[in-house]
Specification:
The protein is an alpha/beta fold. The chain has helices at 2-23, 40-55, 73-82, 92-95, 114-121, 124-137, 179-183, 196-201, 212-217, 243-249, 253-284, 295-305, 314-322; strands at residues 27-32, 60-65, 87-90, 139-154, 168-171, 187-190, 207-210, 226-242, 288-291. Strand 1, helix 2 (40-55) and strand 2 (60-65) form a beta-alpha-beta unit.
Length: 323
């Protein structure tokens, strides 16, 4: 009897030890993106990882993989469904292929500025579109990050739509990014983000378009002499996590959601401030920063925004305009 009791006690002790080990084992999530280590997006992701680890007492750890180290943007979007990544930054233009309406904010000249973007970020419209994306994919939008106003860089001034006729311009590999260059007669060339610098340097493309902070940290100004302030798209990033990842963190999901939303706003404020500071910085580097009359560009694009083929409804278009 004593031996039997000893065996039972020993087994119970082993079980308790195993259970305790499991209880304190961290759930590790992979956060992938295509931006450089020095970018605000990456630095804020590292901040969020530290914050989540601290607030969950180590139960949730996040490993952040920058600079396309786990794949280019199309691949990390696919990776959410495959389970190879758990969290990503991605542009609405890439998400469009899964659920079109959520890309509305990235269409040319559709956002009026940062304050309009903030209103959209907190709106019922954005919440509805995020839910529509979740229904379509099983992935959840946990934050909207301000990426900045996109401007065209080139080796000549671009002041009117006519200056873009025939211009071979790199764009991200997404359908909506074709609208602006097509409207002004340019030759859009989809290309992965990681390949752009070399393509500009070698003359494979003549131009590219990105916000000022991106132009700086990707060093495109080293191989382009002009920044033309077209401001043709006010770009965002979505912070997205898979349902599987959220299920794995269990009761800590609320902490994850709260921190990732705070991180999105933190990065947004840093990028906005950087935009305001960078014009003079580029001029100090000897780059020509050209002020552009946007109206002719807007007039060229407008028929496409309300025509056939856009993925959003005219109700979406109206509600966004009224925010």
């Amino acid at each position: 009897m004593k031996f039997t009791n000893f065996k039972a006690a020993f087994a119970a002790g082993v079980f308790a030890l195993a259970s305790g080990t499991a209880a304190f084992a961290a759930e590790t999530l992979k956060w992938a993106h295509v931006y450089e280590e020095g970018s605000s997006y990456h630095q804020v992701a590292l901040w969020a990882a530290d914050e989540i680890k601290s607030r969950t007492d180590g139960r949730v750890e996040i490993q952040v993989f920058p600079a396309s180290s786990l794949g280019k943007e199309v691949e990390i979007n696919e990776g959410l469904g495959l389970g190879s990544v758990d969290i990503i930054y991605t542009g609405p233009s890439f998400v469009e292929r899964y659920y079109g309406p959520i890309a509305i904010s990235d269409y040319p000249f559709i956002m009026r500025g940062y304050d309009h973007w903030l209103s959209y970020r907190g709106s019922d419209l954005f919440a509805e579109l995020s839910e529509g994306y979740h229904d379509a994919t099983g992935n959840q939008v946990l934050g909207l990050v301000y990426y900045g106003q996109r401007h065209v860089t080139s080796n000549k001034p671009i002041l009117t739509p006519a200056d873009m006729e025939g211009l071979k311009i790199r764009v991200p590999n997404s359908p909506l990014m074709l609208m602006f260059p097509n409207a002004v007669g340019a030759n859009p060339t989809p290309m992965a983000f990681s390949e752009v610098y070399l393509a500009l340097q070698q003359g494979v493309v003549d131009a590219q378009e990105n916000p000022l902070p991106t132009i700086k940290f990707k060093k495109f100004y080293e191989v382009q002499s002009n920044i033309n302030l077209t401001g043709h798209i006010l770009n965002s990033l979505l912070t997205i996590a898979s349902d599987d990842a959220l299920a794995r963190v269990g009761d800590d999901e609320a902490v994850l959601r709260e921190v990732l939303d705070a991180a999105a706003l933190k990065a947004s404020e840093e990028i906005r401030q950087s935009e305001e500071d960078l014009v003079s910085w580029f001029e100090e580097q000897g780059i020509a920063v050209n002020v552009v009359d946007k109206k002719p560009f807007q007039d060229a694009v407008l028929p496409m925004l309300t025509g056939d083929g856009v993925p959003y409804t005219m109700d979406h278009f109206k509600r966004l305009g009224e925010l």
